[in-house]
Design goal:
The protein is α/β, with parallel strands linked by helices and about 260 residues long. About 25% of the residues lie in helices and about 30% in strands.
């Protein structure tokens, strides 16, 4: 049996102030640790805020070379001290000159690296970001393999299916859902859990995007699509649940869609 306590966190970021948002992420890391979590997942573009004016100020966006430097130092120190892994999303300048919308994994040892780049960009995002390359990103935290996704990725069943095929026991989504999109969010994420027989973890952004409220709703679903934990739109809230490999194995003996999928 492998178990992992995960916290899906949400907070209102300071738009364009990466240092302030790194400090908030460090604070939430300590809060998650105090509640027993070993993994904290934060929302889409948390280090800048999910806001066009932040994305357009390209000179202020983090560079991948910054991940080991001073910029993330408070978060890396908090993760190291608390022995908590953190997945945090940010726009990221890459060494090839592109800008991606990425997930950075800060390990419980304080090491940080870019772990995933968003593959499915919505039409507005294509003005600012390059899509991530093909393939599946699965990282292991405390022996639990996690498939990584950012928001719109999760609307494509094959994305979650590929993560499960690669061994993921949970599908982890860093997201920003604007007002009016919550029904689609909840249906899609519960479906991804049932499709693949995995847990689904979603950290939802708060704040505003172009004057439209962003809805939060951070949640965790079990491998049959049942909601295990959820928060509404509270600033600084954490939705905690246990990811359990035995539960995944038991569900997959009854719900066999993952095994029955045609693989050409």
């Amino acid at each position: 049996m492998t178990r992992l306590v995960v916290a899906a966190g949400q907070a209102v970021p300071v738009v364009g102030d990466v240092a302030a948002n790194v400090a908030r992420a460090a604070e939430m890391t300590r809060q998650a640790a105090a509640r027993g979590a070993r993994l904290l997942v934060l929302p889409e573009a948390f280090l800048t805020g999910y806001e066009p004016r932040a994305f357009e100020d390209t000179d202020a966006l983090p560079h991948e070379d910054d991940l080991a430097g001073d910029l993330l130092a408070p978060l890396r120190a908090a993760a190291d001290a608390a022995e908590v892994h953190v997945l945090v999303s940010t726009p990221l300048h890459r060494s090839d000159g592109s800008v991606t919308l990425s997930l950075v994994l800060v390990g419980a040892d304080g090491a940080a690296h870019a772990a995933y780049d968003k593959q499915h960009l919505d039409p507005t995002e294509r003005a600012w970001f390059a899509p991530g390359g093909p393939g599946t990103s699965v990282v292991e935290v405390d022996g639990v393999p996690l498939g990584l996704a950012i928001c719109y990725d999760s609307r494509f069943p094959e994305h979650a299916a590929a993560a499960a095929e690669a061994g993921a026991l949970a599908y982890v989504v860093s997201a920003a859902y604007l007002e009016g999109s919550t029904r689609g969010r909840d249906v899609a994420l519960a479906a991804r859990a049932l499709d693949t027989g995995t847990h689904v973890v979603m950290a939802g952004a708060l704040g505003e995007c172009g004057g439209v409220p962003i809805t939060g709703g951070s949640s965790v679903w079990g491998p049959e699509g049942h909601l295990l934990a959820s928060v509404a739109d509270d600033d600084g809230a954490l939705a905690l649940a246990v990811l359990d490999s035995d539960v995944v194995a038991e569900v997959r003996t009854r719900q066999t869609m993952h095994a029955d999928r045609r693989r050409s």
